[in-house]
Design brief:
Structural class: alpha+beta
Distance between the termini: 34 Å
Strand order of the largest sheet: 3-2-1-14-13-12-11-10
Number of domains: 2
CATH architecture of the largest domain: 3-Layer(aba) Sandwich
Order of helices and strands: HHEEEEHEEHHHHHEHEEHEEEEEH
Number of helices: 11
Strand content: 15-25%
Largest sheet: 8 strands, antiparallel
Number of strands: 14
CATH class of the largest domain: Alpha Beta
CATH topology of the largest domain: Beta-lactamase
Oligomer: single chain
Length: 434
């Protein structure tokens, strides 16, 4: 009963925040549509989504989640499920705070494009213009010897790595992983991305390692956005966290978004449950932990309502509540496909499956997120021009300009991240009536 009253109170508060239909105020949860039908969604079909999320909690698939759907400038759906902390059993609050991992990347990409609009950098430029350490990078070529073992040779880069390459993940950088690939193993050995890193030390480490592909040729998910974070620092003269707070999250009133949450917010901190074959608790840093490494590629915390504001700013063409962050044309550029025709994705990238930015899946990659390029080929519903990304800890968002809709999922379940991204695509689009 208390939870129902809480939801009712939130709904009344959100209704009180409403502004004009042409300039909705997306405050701590946003303007709530009177009914889902007001914005063309079926209440009965959204109830299917609610029941499926509840089933997921009851069956132990996920510990808890917060889910928001916005359409036509209003929130059509906003629900919390399960618990924020499996150990304490505390119910999930609507304003639960989550580690968003790679959902930090679109925010860092926004920072780069702000500097581009101000004429302080160009994404056409070679990265070495801003980071001299990157001037003479080598490309590793892995060959298998007669003994069946992998060995690496080095060759010069045919083209310089550009800022655009970093934005679209065609830089030739990678994420380290232990195994047969000596290049990726070198990242592990160098402890790239260690929590003790700074953006400066990370770049120094990367500058001494070989690239896994020639720049501009192959999509390989990587530390590219972390390098962008260092470029923001060098060009702006500010630390990445301060620039983001002053130029993006502050103006957009994303009050709970940053690189850590204050101790006073510990009662809203979310935690994962044991997962995997060994039933181990995933190693997700507590949201109140202030990590030294302010990772542009994965270091931020946020809430569903805050990230909904970020999505609405993108959907509005670069502004929210009268505050413009980027121009409409810049948002159009960022959400277009930037992958060269025929560009492959790295062989280890198959883990993205139906979300892969590959032509075979009818998808590409823009300047910070993946982009749908074809109405078919992909088994998941969507629209040409929709764009999305997610985080390794379980968070996910997508924006569909054609439907004037965004969806934000916040949860801390690495094991559940792909199944629930697929599930949401199906369950949200089946509720679209008009």
């Amino acid at each position: 009963m208390k939870k129902c009253l809480g939801v009712m109170a939130i709904t009344l508060l959100l209704s009180a925040c409403a502004s004009t239909p042409t300039a909705p105020v997306l405050a701590a949860g946003g303007v709530r549509a009177a009914t889902p039908g007001e914005v063309g969604l079926s209440a009965a079909r959204l109830a299917r989504l609610t029941e499926r999320m509840k089933q997921g909690v009851a069956s132990g698939e996920i510990p808890g989640a917060v889910l928001m759907i916005g359409r036509n400038g209003k929130i059509a759906y906003q629900e919390s499920f399960g618990v924020r902390d499996p150990q304490s059993g505390t119910p999930m609050p609507m304003d639960g705070i989550f580690r968003i991992a790679s959902m930090s990347k679109p925010i860092t990409s926004t920072a780069i494009m702000i500097l581009s609009e101000e004429g302080r950098l160009s994404i056409v430029d070679p990265v070495s213009k801003y980071l001299p350490e990157f001037k003479d990078l080598k490309v590793g070529v892995v060959k298998t010897g007669a003994d069946g073992k992998s060995a690496m040779a080095l060759e010069a880069a045919a083209n310089p790595m550009t800022v655009q390459d970093l934005l679209r993940h065609t830089s030739g950088l990678t994420y380290g992983s232990a195994g047969d690939n000596p290049i990726k193993q070198a990242y592990v050995d160098a402890k790239v991305g260690d929590n003790a890193d700074t953006n400066a030390t990370l770049v120094t480490k990367l500058s001494k390692l070989p690239l896994v592909f020639q720049p501009g040729t192959t999509w390989e998910y990587s530390y590219s956005t972390d390098v962008l974070g260092r470029i923001v620092e060098v060009v702006s003269g500010q630390s990445l966290d301060k620039f983001v707070a002053e130029r993006i999250t502050g103006p957009l009133k994303m009050v709970d978004t940053g690189y850590s949450a204050p101790a006073s917010a510990a009662g809203r901190a979310t935690r994962p449950q044991p997962e995997g074959p060994k039933k181990e608790i995933p190693k997700i840093p507590a949201v109140t932990e202030d990590l030294a490494f302010k990772s542009g590629g994965g270091g931020m915390v946020s809430t569903a309502a805050d990230y909904a504001r970020f999505c609405q700013y993108l959907l509005n063409g670069g502004e929210l509540d009268g505050v413009r962050i980027l121009s409409r044309k810049t948002i159009e550029l960022m959400s277009a496909n930037h992958l060269p025709p025929g560009a492959p994705i790295g062989p280890d990238m198959v883990r993205f499956e139906a979300l892969a930015p590959s032509a075979a899946m009818g998808q590409g990659f823009g300047l910070g997120y993946a982009v749908r390029t074809d109405v078919g080929r992909n088994p998941l519903p969507g629209s040409v021009g929709d764009y999305y990304w997610g985080g390794a800890y379980g968070t996910y968002f997508w924006i569909d300009p054609k439907e004037q809709m965004y969806v934000v999922l916040m949860m801390q379940s690495p094991q559940g991240r792909l199944p629930y991204r697929y599930l949401l695509r199906q369950m949200v689009y089946q509720a679209v009536e008009r």
